[in-house]
Amino acid sequence: QVQLVESGGGLAQAGGSLSLSCAASGSFFRLNSMAWYRQPPGNERELVARVTRGGDTSYADSVKGRFTISRDNAKNTAYLEMNSLKPEDTCVYYCKAVITDWNMRMSDYWGPGTQVSISS
After folding, report:
1. Minimal CA–CA distance to 92: which of 4, 6, 2?
2. Which letter does DSSP use for residue 89 in this model?
3. What is the percent of the chain where pLDDT is above 70?
4. How far apart are CA 8 and CA 69, in angstroms?
5. Average pLDDT over residues 13-24
6. How many other C-beta atoms lie within 10 A of the C-beta of residue 80?
7. Which of 41, 118, 65, 43 is closest to 87 using CA atoms?
8. Quick check: helix, strand or coil at residue 120?
9. H-only helix segments in the chain
10. Residue 28 has what DSSP assignment?
């Protein structure tokens, strides 16, 4: 069974930095794209950053230049380095992975979420 385990997050001051990681475990054929989403209270979940298996990245306009997504394919892990944090970055952050199983079916998997809180 595939699982995504998130770590990192917590509390930081505005202007500070935090790091998140997301490790995929279980048996599968291939780990495709990985991404971080966040869900502000009362709003829909929004894409923060995405990285393809080949390392191509994309970002929400609100985090460009501040956040960096990366991955280690050998460890089946994605990372999100968050710098110059703002109070409006306060959210639950979710990791999403697109995984191909041994039947060659692609599915989305989500982590349980990790809280990031930024104080002003």
Report:
1. 6
2. G
3. 100
4. 14
5. 98
6. 27
7. 118
8. coil
9. none
10. -
DSSP code for 52: -
Locate 61 and state its tokens.
């306009």
* Residues 58 and 49: beta-carbon distance below 8 Å: yes
Q: Which two tokens stand for residue 70?
A: 């990366």
Look-up: residue for tokens 């960096």?
Answer: 68
Structure token digits, residue 88? 């409006």
- What does the alpha-carbon distance between residue 41 and residue 17 come to, in Å, rounded to a whole number? 22
Please report which confidence band the pLDDT of residue 71 belongs to, taking 50, 70 and 90 as the band edges: very high
Q: How far apart are CA 16 and CA 119, in angstroms?
A: 10
How far apart (Å, rounded) are the C-alpha atoms in residues 10 and 118?
8
Residue 41 has pLDDT above 90, yes or no: no
* Measured distance CA(72)–CA(82) in Å, rounded: 17
Is the distance from CB of 69 to CB of 57 less than 8 angstroms? Answer: yes
